[in-house]
Amino acid sequence: MPTDTDADDLAALLERGDLEVEGRLSHASNAVYRVVVDGSLRAVYKPVRGERPLWDFPDGTLAARELTSYLISRLGDWHRIPPTVLRDGPLGPGSLQVWVGPLDVTGDHDLLRVDPPGKLPEGYRPVVQGQDEYFADVVVSHADDPALREVALLDAVLNNADRKATALILDDGDLFAIDHGLTMHEEPKLRTVLWGYAGEPLTADETAQLTDLQGLLATDQLRDLLAQLITDTELIALDRRIRKLLRDETMPAIPPHRHPLPWPLW
Q1: Sheet holding 124-131: strands in order across?
Q2: Mean pLDDT for the stretch of residues 168-183
Q3: pLDDT digits (tens, 9 = 90+) for 8-42
Q4: Does the pLDDT value for residue 54 go beyond 60?
Q5: What tens digit of pLDDT does each residue of 215-233 get?
Q6: Per-residue pLDDT tens for 106-128?
Q7: I need a surface site. Which of 10, 60, 166, 213 has the fewest CB within 10 A?
Q8: Total-model pTM
Q9: Calpha distance 222→19 (Å, rounded)
């Protein structure tokens, strides 16, 4: 995991480096490109003009939500989101994030798995039971891993509406979380594959983490910075989510009134 100094240096390189497009990522729903920064650092470039219109998120706001999520991850001491900036690129302004993980974009790991009912391996937490494409009963589960729990709590703060398994990347044993364009909405939209921790009590460290973040978000300097990226209503909703987590003293419960899972899961 990069130190704060490493992250600052990488962010500075992202902001000022020359960009060369390697190619477009064909699996992405929006226009997403892998680029090389200053001939050495690989990164993911998501131009605003390539964002597909969505019914529930304002047009042209996903890149700013990527940066907002990164800033909150840093400020909250999660450090699970790769260094991210906003800048002009070959296709106009957009988000630019350090590439993590393998270059083949396989996303293969054992953090999440699918098993027949009753065959859940030790050390995994069930998320949902259903049927596969052959109508066989299956259980989707995720590893009981401290790093995954960190991401689950971060997603609750960010109100992440799209935490898929493929947005969890292992890089030399370190867990990173990517794809944060669908975050920070004013309405509850948490959709995630990490519901295995639902309703569990917060640890003392998690409570302190949230309390510290709440204090930082109360400062004029930080609020002024975030107000350039998201709306005042979304800022208020962010504060309310943190307050609710601290008041409930638990990880979020699975909502009964709306769909709690992203689609597809992977």
Answers
A1: 112-115, 137-143, 124-131
A2: 95
A3: 999 999 999 999 999 999 888 899 999 999 999 99
A4: yes
A5: 999 999 999 999 999 999 9
A6: 555 789 998 888 888 999 999 98
A7: 60
A8: 0.93
A9: 29
What tokens appear for 180 in the block? 């944060």
By DSSP bridging, strand 124-131 and strand 168-171 are unpaired
Nearest to 112 by CA among 168, 177, 172: 168
What is the full DSSP assignment across the chain? Answer: ---HHHHHHHHHHHHHS-EEEEEE-TT-SS--EEEEETTTEEEEEEEGGGPPP-SSS-TT-HHHHHHHHHHHHHHTT---SPPEEEEEETTEEEEEEE--S-TT-----SSEEEE-TT-PPTTEEEEEEEE-TTS-EEEEEEE--HHHHHHHHHHHHHT-S-B-GGGEEEETTEEEE---SS---SS----BS-GGGTTPBPPHHHHHHHHHHHHHHTSHHHHHHHTTTS-HHHHHHHHHHHHHHHHHTBPPPPPSSS--S-SS--
Residue the block writes with tokens 């996903």: 62
